[in-house]
Design a protein that fits this description.
Rossmann fold, Alpha-Beta Plaits, 18 helices, binds S-adenosylmethionine, alpha/beta
Length: about 400
């Protein structure tokens, strides 16, 4: 496919997404009916689509309309490319720009539009991030780098770097965590690499690893990952300490890959359903990696940024409070409760910490830490409490 044909494919896919279809499904369907597209074409179209979704508002303002075509014209202008170079009408490229498209002068009506944040969210976003607001919003407009976690049960970070290098994947240590690597070349090879398939490395954002590093794991024979999902944090915990790691999720289907992932990683993880939880309590440490707005991972899931509403956020915040209250009951005397989100919004983070301490007596607040996307990781937050002994 020519560069122009790739842009036309992105326009058609974006039109379907803007009409309400899910991005992944739309890309898959396009791939199925576009046998002519090679792997590089597919990757390029996908990159166009995801970049346009991250910057949907500002690109639409620069392009003149919030359509696939308007957004892709805006993308060219944002990247300093003359759209006329790609919109040629030749070789399946989009038709040339109309006079009004050519004459459109893109201006931003608000800081939220310029920074690709929903208008309703901007005041809360800015209050949460203070002086870092624009840097963080701009970082959310770019693609996230790929991070790996070195599984210390299999070997150390230097060994992982050299094994990966032999498999055509270049990596460097990431400063956020002693187990984190950032992939500098060959990211698309990771999922087929022996280092990955044998459990030597896992795909995991460096801040997600740093959350686990922030937990007081010493003298915690029994740890519960209360919102385990697929077990990313449970696996990271199991690699850092001796003792049993339990995993639980309100939706047991989300835990179904944990036994296989644990076996591959050489880790020992016991999955508990809701009925088994209270029988297994109390735990020395309970981590709640709670459902959240996902604002810290909007680079990977840009649709989430535009889907979030005030009502949905209120529901998420209420669920987080309930999860904290429920999980607190499972913590042993003198034990630790940790609350984490992949959000950068104060209402889901520090405010949750304050509210928990206001609702519960007999808990000491040990620490809290936040990571924001402009420093090269996903946005994350972790807060650690200790129950009186
Ligand atoms: C942010 S995800 C967890 C990600 C996971 N810890 C990881 O590192 O891959 C949040 C999880 O919380 C689960 N969840 C939602 N409500 C819950 C509840 N009331 N109790 C326990 N888990 C819940 C969701 O099903 C979801 O899998």
């Amino acid at each position: 496919m020519t560069p122009g044909a790739r842009v036309q494919a992105a326009i058609e896919i974006l039109d379907e997404i803007l009409a309400g279809q899910a991005a992944e499904k739309t890309l898959t369907n396009w791939g199925r009916r576009s046998r002519f597209a090679g792997s590089k074409d597919r990757a390029a179209v996908r990159d166009h689509v995801y970049q346009a979704l991250r910057c949907r508002r500002s690109y639409a303002a620069l392009g003149g309309t919030e359509t696939g075509r308007g957004v892709m014209i805006g993308a060219c202008r944002d990247q300093g490319i003359d759209p006329a170079d790609l919109f040629t009408g030749q070789g399946h490229a989009p038709t040339p720009l109309s006079e009004s498209e050519q004459a459109h002068v893109g201006t931003f009506e608000s800081d939220a539009e310029k920074n690709d944040i929903p208008e309703w969210l901007w005041p809360m976003f800015a209050r949460s991030l203070g002086a870092q607001t624009e840097d963080v919003a701009q970082a959310l407009r770019a693609r996230a780098s790929v991070h790996l976690r070195v599984n210390l049960l299999k070997g150390d970070r230097d060994a992982a770097i050299s094994r990966l290098q032999h498999e055509g994947i270049s990596t460097e240590p990431h400063e956020a965590s002693p187990t984190a690597l950032v992939v500098t070349e060959g990211a698309r090879r990771v999922k087929n690499a022996e280092s990955y398939l044998s459990g030597f490395v896992e795909l995991q954002d460096a801040a997600s690893q740093a959350v686990v590093n922030a937990l007081p794991l010493q003298n915690t024979p029994r740890v519960l990952d209360y919102c385990s999902g697929g077990g990313g944090k449970a696996l990271a915990i199991a690699a850092l300490r001796d003792g049993t790691v339990y995993a639980h999720d309100a939706d047991p289907r989300r835990m179904r890959d944990i036994p296989e992932r644990a076996a591959r990683a050489g880790a020992d993880i016991t999955c508990l359903d809701t009925a088994e939880l209270s029988k297994s309590a109390p735990f020395d440490l309970v981590l709640c990696d709670a459902p959240c707005s996902g604002s810290g991972s909007w680079r990977r899931d840009p649709e989430g940024k535009w889907r979030l509403t005030q009502d949905a956020l209120d529901e998420i915040v209420a669920l987080q409070s309930k999860i904290l209250d429920d999980a607190a009951q499972l913590v042993a005397d003198g034990g630790v409760l940790a609350f984490a989100t992949c959000s950068m919004l104060d209402v889901e983070n520090h405010k949750q910490t304050q509210d928990f301490l206001a609702r519960h007596t007999g808990w000491e607040h040990l620490s809290e830490r936040a990571w924001h996307v402009h420093t090269g990781t996903d946005g994350f937050y972790v807060s650690v409490f200790q129950r009186a002994g």
